[in-house]
Write a structure and sequence with these properties.
Number of helices: 17
Number of strands: 29
Strand order of the largest sheet: 9-8-7-13-12-10
Length: about 725
Amino acid sequence: MTQPTPSLDLTSCDREPIHVPGSIQPHGILLALDSETLAIQQGAGETRDAVGRAVDGLAGEHAEAVLGAQAVHLIHSAGVQSTEPLYLGNIPAPADPSRHLDVTAHRRDGVLILELEPSTPHPETAAQTLATVRRISAELDAAPDLARLVQAASREFRRLTGFDRVMIYSFLDDGSGAVVAEAKADSLDPFLNHRYPASDIPKQARALYLQNLIRVIPDVDYRPVPLVPPLNPATGRPLDMSDCSLRSVSPIHVQYLKNMGVAASMSVSLVVDGALWGLIACHHASPKLVPYELRESCKHVGQILSQQVKAREDAERHRQTARLSVARDEFLEGLARAGSTENGLLDAVADLKKLIPSDGAAVVFRGKVSQASYAPSEAQTRELADRLLRSDLSDPFATNSLVRHHSPAEAYAAQASGLLATVVSHEDPLVLLWFRAEHIETINWAGNPHKPAEPGEGMGQLTPRASFETWKETVRHQSRAWSIAEVEAARRLRRAVLDLRQQAALKELNVQLRRTLADREVLLSQKDLLMQEVHHRVQNSLQLVNSMLQLQVRQTSDAQVKAQFEEATRRIMAVSTVHQHLWRSDQIQSIDFGSYLEELREGLLEAWGQAWAEHIKVYAGQVLVPTNEAVVLALVVTELLTNAVKYAYAGAPGPIDVIAREDGQKVLRVTVEDQGVGMPGEAAPKSGLGSRLVRSLIGQLGGELEVKSRSPGTAIILTVPLAARTNHS
């Protein structure tokens, strides 16, 4: 029976716990100490030659008993608190004082970790090291661009370290890496411009490259030396060796290096804006120990190179942004002169190509398509715009492989493999699109990128690929990538077009407002002419009726009839006051009811006499009331005041307050309250002409009337809903 081929799980590399290998490389010694007592908890390395004792006999011993008083003094003097390894100095090896050991220390999970490595027999002086680093820094600073910067860095780094090959390795957006610079021995085949798949450096390895800026493997054929005991007795867990330079290396990575023919390696991280930009990768054909002081120089040069890379990229981005800004400003000036922003965009679509370098461009507005140069068909462009309008993709949307996001794009990949697009408006659909044609590229991979691992000896085990010979791949359906500055240019153009549209809308609104104001002036003028004529007629008519009533009052001797005539006179005067107010107002649809009540009070005082002036008070905020309803309310208030005079004070002056306000329930509340003797039966008469008039008028307004007896006096509360009035105010 044929056995099934074991499946290869490439994600196993990403899950390998490389920060807790439980062992170290044998060129040094690692000791884990209790941070308070300095008692040794774990140890690893060839301790017998250095300290004269086997590693399995160190647990529980004090550091001074094993390393000597000088080492303990260095520990106390440094006051180690950080996870970043700190160089303490060098000490003579207790078992062989002619040898010296470099000592570094750091803390992790409450454990003090010491690492001891052989010192250089004849180290450079500090002045010599500084002079070397300054010379390299000057060489890097003199490089005119990024390409020549990284090439100079590879050359100077090889000169500094003596490795057979030094490569500057840059990570790309898809996770793969490219060798962008190389300095090597003449006998070696070049790797310059070769690409490496993302799987060559797993995720957790990249995380450690950010944490530890330098990593050294002096001999790939080393045998890992285990920690004794395996678990830390204080934590009960494997020792976290993330920051240890002696940490044992992943067996997969070791085999990877062996497959490349590498016997020793060193890598220095290049970190730009907190992200791993790339690596300085160093390879040697024979074992090579890199002492501590040289590693520190390499780390410092790596940091200088990282800063220079950032400066060059920022400068290039700034230059590109400046060029794009000039083009955008010129484009917007022309667009602002167009009668319509949208029509201007449709007409100037060819200029969009100049705005952001591209092979074609399109504007889609309300389904209408305008295109320039290389672009899909109108139907295909419209479909793309509709997809962008419906999707939750980021804006601007940029891709150099449109087919990955939109499978129908394969049909027009030659014209538009790359897309940069921004949705200016979803509500009034407006989309701007830039296209880049297919850029067929041949990539030189260092080995087959589609075969990053091969079956191991056991079921499901992996070994890294053994071949690093140049493997060519032709890449289709891709365009030149959009730069950060170009994507930002699309974002800024979107904002600028939005501003132009808003300015155009505001301009149109101002035109409409001026037209509305002009219409209102005409209406007011017409109203004024009409009201002047009507005013004279109404006032004359009211005066005529009032004169007739006064004549009747003088001619009758019946007190009850005389009282009725006098009451009718007051009501006519109230109507006259209302009319006078409306005639003077420049408001057509609504009036301020508080001011209206003040004028009503003044009109009543003319009829009742100034003796009432200090007694009748109006308390009202600003409440807008439709004009037609204000007339009715004024008549009701007049009637309520008349009743208060009649029933509370029998015609003699007394305090009467009129309170009008809008409460939180969209209700106009008008209260007329006195401090008199009150109404008969604690309620307004229901049979009199005045009471019937009041209730009829309140019914027209949809309001309610409530009578409350006070001690002394009576309060009559009128409530009218305001919700129906909001559209009039």
